[in-house]
Write a structure and sequence with these properties.
By secondary structure, this protein is an alpha/beta fold. It has a domain of about 120 residues: Rossmann fold (3-Layer(aba) Sandwich), CATH 3.40.50.300. It contains 9 helices and 5 strands; from the N terminus they run E-H-E-H-H-H-H-E-E-H-H-H-E-H. A 5-stranded parallel sheet has the order 2-3-1-4-5, with helices on both faces. Helix 2 crosses helix 5. The longest helix has 28 residues. Bound molecules: adenosine-5'-triphosphate (ATP). The site of adenosine-5'-triphosphate has 16 residues, from helix 1, helix 6 and helix 9. Adenosine-5'-triphosphate binds next to helix 1, helix 6 and helix 9.
Length: about 200
């Protein structure tokens, strides 16, 4: 059985970048957000239940979840959010499980789970051999996300405030990857290679 790593970090910390580096080193990367987008994408496995629960108004012309409308609904009605999660989460778990089986069958040496909210939800602890946290200051998170998305600094601050604190995230970490302002992509790669080596990659 390959080791299973959890990979997490706040918005803009560099988690996806680290995940891609690990994948380039041969790890099987399982990205819960990506699977969640797939099951709510055109003809996705969650779409029939979304259609029957919320109605056709939340399904766009391509047969995918209308994210903008759903975000508005979830914002005004917290119950809608939990209803959506009750549909999507079990499917994400199922599809993740299928990918884990495929990774094991294909002989992957390491399985890496990209879990943005790992520190926020305790349920992962038992399934993972170790947790890797990508860490940087809030200022750098704000800068990276603003560059990438055009969100305002205040909007990014709001998202950061809604996530686990840096301290809480570091508390669940077995390994912390520092991805600070001065860290170039080459340095990040070198740091990730060292961490990967710890786990036999
Ligand atoms: P999110 O939670 O929002 O998905 P994330 O933690 O996955 O964010 P990334 O998408 O990996 O973060 O990184 C955010 C942005 O910052 C990306 O555009 C990425 O290319 C850039 N970035 C991350 N680390 C570095 C670095 N060390 N040097 C230069 N750019 C970086």
């Amino acid at each position: 059985q390959p080791l299973r790593l959890g990979l997490t970090g706040g918005i803009g910390s560099g988690k996806s970048t680290v995940g891609q580096i690990l994948a380039s080193l041969g790890a099987a990367l399982i990205d819960a957000d990506q699977i969640s987008r797939e099951v709510t994408g055109p003809g996705g496995a969650a779409m029939p239940a979304i259609q029957s629960t919320f109605g056709g108004a939340y399904v766009d012309a391509s047969g995918a979840l209308d994210r903008t409308r759903m975000r508005q609904l979830a914002f005004s009605q917290p119950k809608a959010r939990s209803q959506l999660e009750a549909i999507v989460h079990p499917l994400v778990a199922l599809h993740s499980q299928q990918r884990i089986q495929q990774a094991i069958q294909s002989g992957a040496p390491l399985i890496v789970h990209d879990i943005p909210l790992l520190a926020e939800s305790g349920r992962w602890a038992r399934q993972l051999d170790a947790v890797v946290v990508v860490d940087c200051t809030a200022d750098i998170q704000i800068e990276r996300v603003m560059q990438r998305s055009g969100l305002s600094a205040d909007a990014v601050r709001g998202i950061i405030a809604s996530q686990a604190t840096r301290t809480a995230r570091r508390a669940v970490a077995d390994v912390v990857i520092a991805n600070e302002a001065h860290c170039t992509l080459e340095q990040l790669q070198a740091e990730v290679r060292q961490v990967a080596a710890l786990f036999g990659l």
